[in-house]
Design a protein that fits this description.
With 288 residues, this protein is an alpha/beta fold. The chain is globular.
């Protein structure tokens, strides 16, 4: 991509933000969570401008159905890819709130921040997430706790999965909450399988410098992103959150193996995921 082409795309993206952000901010003040269209549109504009194609498979939650989404995390691009599909919010580290530009985007996405340096932060964030779930929202948690290089799946952390229990406590009539495993992979670039050497142009992890990474991203050509919605897991008041998290990790690992990454075999788990398409209030749904 030439400098002129990049400048035109950035200018178009800035124009889209200028058009969408002010009315969205007002709508957030007036409508709260129901103001969800603008972030999806902005993400889709970005994907179109920079040649990112998102495909999905599996059975996502029905529109308006609450779910705590447990996803793997490869890149900042994950947020744009997932955010283009459904109205939702993310859980992120509190430092992002102070980042130039990105902090503004995160606020408009109604991001839930966690201060990992503050004791008791997990309980506070779980309560906030639980309230969102009780209100019927989709909340995305990158359960690895950090980004990886895209070639392997890091262990899922279970601490914030307690938000599902907080949702049950916030809404006494709710019997179960849906835990939704979600796998995100970057299998192809320029129509060819992504090689290990190319993953640093997509994955952003460790102490990688952001500016060179972004330049490699825009110069490298079109990217295919594949999102896999795994089988939902029913979470009840008595569910072991560690077992539920292990089940979600196994689902994501199996999905990544299906698209050619994360080939290490899944660990054994003693839980039964709910079958896609079943009502999580139905007694036939297997509890964890």
């Amino acid at each position: 991509m030439s400098r002129f082409g990049l400048a035109c795309r950035v200018a178009t993206l800035a124009l889209a933000f200028a058009v969408l952000a002010p009315p969205h901010w007002v709508a957030l003040r007036l409508l709260g969570r129901r103001a969800t269209l603008a972030p999806m549109l902005f993400h889709r504009v970005f994907l179109r401008l920079f040649g990112v194609r998102v495909t999905q498979s599996g059975t996502p939650p029905a529109m308006g159905e609450a779910a705590l989404v447990l996803a793997n995390h490869v890149s900042w691009l994950d947020i744009i890819a997932i955010g283009s599909l459904r109205p939702l919010s993310f859980v992120a580290k509190s430092e992002i709130a102070g980042w130039p530009v990105i902090g503004t985007f995160a606020a408009l996405q109604r991001t839930i921040y966690i201060d990992r340096q503050r004791r008791g932060a997990t309980a506070t964030v779980s309560a906030t997430m639980g309230h969102r779930l009780a209100e019927g929202e989709l909340v995305v948690l990158f359960a690895e706790g950090t980004t990886g290089d895209g070639t392997r799946l890091l262990p899922f952390r279970s601490s914030l999965v307690g938000a599902a229990r907080a949702a049950l406590q916030a809404e006494a009539g709710r019997g179960r909450v849906r835990l939704q495993p979600l796998a995100i992979a970057y299998p192809r670039r320029n129509g060819l399988p992504v090689t290990r050497s190319e993953r640093s142009e997509i994955a952003w992890y460790g102490d990688m410098e952001l500016a060179p990474h972004l330049m490699a991203f825009v110069q490298g050509g079109p990217i295919d992103v594949h999102v896999v919605w795994g089988a939902p897991i029913a979470f009840e008041a008595t569910t072991d959150r560690k077992a539920a998290t292990a089940a979600a990790e196994a689902e994501v690992r199996a999905a990544l193996r299906g698209v050619g990454v994360g080939s290490r075999p899944p660990p054994p788990v003693s839980v039964s995921p709910a079958r896609p398409g079943l009502d999580l209030h139905d007694p036939e749904v297997a509890a964890v």
